[in-house]
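Today's session is about reading a structure prediction critically. Students often jump straight to the picture, but the first step is always the sequence itself: look for stretches that repeat, for charged clusters, for runs of hydrophobic residues. Only then move on to the predicted structure, which in these notes is written as discrete structure tokens rather than atom positions. Here is the chain we will use throughout the hour.
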Amino acid sequence: MKFISALVLSLALFTASFAQDANQKDPKAKVILDKLVAKGKTYKTVEAGFSYNLKNSDAGIDETQEGKIWIKGDAYKLELNGLVRVSDGKTIWTYLPDDGELQIAEAGGDEDSEEMMKPSELFTMYENGFNYMYEKEIQKGGKTLDVIKLFPEKGGKPYHTIKLYVPKGKDTIDHVEIYGKDGNLYTYTIKELKANTTLQDSFFVFDESQADDIIDLR
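Below is the predicted structure for this chain, in token form.
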């Protein structure tokens, strides 16, 4: 899993050259991004349903899955394609119900090194470490969407470009596209979002007694 290992999250992925866009801080894009950041910072918790699509034309891959994610700071719980992943920000539990297998790893450790981004960064990831530009306005699904391209300022990321699709006049994200250096395109579409619901810290700690087989990778 990507974006949260497998999403976004994803949310999400890029050594293509983007020299022509480097060091750009597009004022038009900044206005939209600043509103997204301000709105995102009001979220103490997030509960969201989403769809996750992985596409690679060269490899003939086009797969879509439905998932759900809960976020509280750096803690999160993700359910996607039969997999359950829970993290309290220090430990990550990855549970495969069909196999009864539970893998335990340290958050930020080697087993967590392929994370696309922290779930808590979904709404504020563009605030630091990215150059950005306003690309265009499009019509899709009866919505008018502003398209903003983000480029990581530093190398070492598994992606080269992120595109945000923002409903015009709204401080929310409709969907995110993450373009991987490996040719994969990851798309995360927000289906439903509830902010600031009550989520206890215990919700982000996995009950290890559910597992038949525990693999401790710490």
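Discussion point for the tutorial: Residues 10 and 204 are 19 Å apart (CA to CA).
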